[in-house]
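ok trying this again, last paste got cut off
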Amino acid sequence: MHPILNKSCAILLLCMPLAAYAERADRDKPMHLEADQVLVDDAQQISTFTGNVQMIQGTMVIRGDKIVVIQYPDGFKHGTAWGQTASFRQKREGLDEYVEGYGERIEYDTRAETVDFFVRARVKRDLDDVRGDFITYSQKTEIFQVNSNKPSASDTTPKRVRAVFQPKPKTGAEPKPSEPLDIAPSQNITPPEPE
């Protein structure tokens, strides 16, 4: 289990089925990386990309100041992105909508099909917005888990998870407002004759 998840004091766990289904075809696409500089260690199968790095796999895009990619013998990869704010974006399956995430560190694991956001973590889908110290998004189960971190010794205030869920439009047909009636004087009415 991840060390942040082991902290027992003041942890708020919120499982939210945000129905943020990742584009399933992305996992079968090649991973493309672009950076100012790369250091490739073939013996260890570790590549370190630095300077305005962009990692693209299908509709998924991860950006950061530095990304380290480890390739395992079975072909799975693990990428870690760092940045003042590293970013993640991926299209939702069958929809013209994206999931976006931010953090000072983002980890993408192709074997577990998870994306983890650390430190000032934030995930947005449409107008919904979730924030915490650690957010994990499972592309397999399509669930976000959001955690606050244990307060430090100098700060005894428990940290909190924040979420804003916007109301969704109703699915039924909404009645349209009635059209205003045009009222105009009639040409057929004659004024009464004077007596």
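PB: full thing came through this time. The two ends are 101 Å apart (CA to CA).
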